[in-house]
Amino acid sequence: MRWNRFWILGCSTLLGLFFIYAKEAPGGTKRNPPIRTIIIDPGHSAQTPGAHGKFSTEEGIVLDVALKLGKLIETNMKDVRVVYTRKTSNALASTLKADLNERAIIANREKGDLFISIHCNSAGPSRHVVGYKTVMVRKGKRKVATKKPIYTTSPSTAEGTETYVWATGKNTAKTESLRESPVILLDNAEGANTVMDMSDPETFILLNTLRNTYFDQSLRLSTLIEDEFTHVGRISRGARQRDEKGIWVLQATAMPSVLVELGFISNPEEEKYLNSEDGQQEAATCIYKAIQRYKDELGRYSNPESTEPATMQPTPISYKKGAGRQPVTTSKGKTLIAKKTTKEKDKQLASRVKPSKTSSKAIAAKKVVVKPSFAYDIQLMITDKKYHSGSSIFNKLSGNIRQEQITINHKRLNKYIWGSFRSEPEANTALRRAKQLGFWNAFLLPKKNDTRLASR
Fold first, then answer.
1. Residues of the chain with CATH 3.30.70.1070
2. Is the whole-model pTM more than 0.85?
């Protein structure tokens, strides 16, 4: 009985330790869901039906496809909430401008992570010359015989899908939408529920970084959507920017946004396809598959939530080009192996060559070559605000962001450092990147043997 008790107690202890380890293991780290809410916007309404085909209208087709798309997402993405700007043919407001504005308000109010507007394309009828006729045209006091072409019209043969993102000419409007969005809040604890102050230059950096990120994500999703259409045999007219009237919702929504043109309702063949049950289901499935691929990509590259301080984070620098002679390692195991290999080479060299001053100098010189004496950090900014390493303001900077506290004129400030970089060309490339993202005052901080040579 005594041994049974010890056996049960030992097993219980081991099992408890196993569960504790499993809970705290890095593999079990909770990740932020890359997409929580998707806004689906069926364009137009019964009051403003959009393009007309031979027997149907744009607003009816896009509503059917939007509802099918939403059902696919709700069925297969249990962690995603779907919000429709409309689920009936009724308009959202009395005028077209107010209707568009209401769609953007819904998207921003619901804090969408993705906005998908669905439309149909249209083109005017084609004109063809079928012959000529002679007519008399008066020239002064005389009539002169003149040939004029005879035209016939036929339905448009334009076909294919298109997916749009907002044009870079609308970046200012997109930034304004981000500024007005209640989602964009300060990261520091003191102002966690306060809308950001636009007079703050750091806010300008944050908004521009977010806008650029949303543009890249929108362009990626639009490419994936067109790719899925081509997989089922549809003609793709490409993913492109659009700076025209009618896509105001793309720049008015504070999130990645795309507008999908399902096809040309003015083309009889495509109109028939877009009104069929199979055609609508196929279009919805293509968009859904693209969203799933996009979501998977975001999940792969998004950073897990971490409770470690900024100085403890790993340093996977994306701008490394292998210019340095010593390999940059990202794990302690690899670093130890590299050091061991170097020591073994030194021992072999010492066994082959008799000890002398010359050989000692040669070995010392070799060690200097293997281990670069210089490295570079980038100082991004100095501010009185406190940001964590995963803050949105650093969203597009890959690598370790460290915070250092300094005192200037008896005032405690925070300095944010990005790095380290193993070569000057690599550091200069990263510096240009930082300035493009709005860190105008960023500059290099060279280090020698891990000791900083210059600072501001």
1. 310-452
2. no
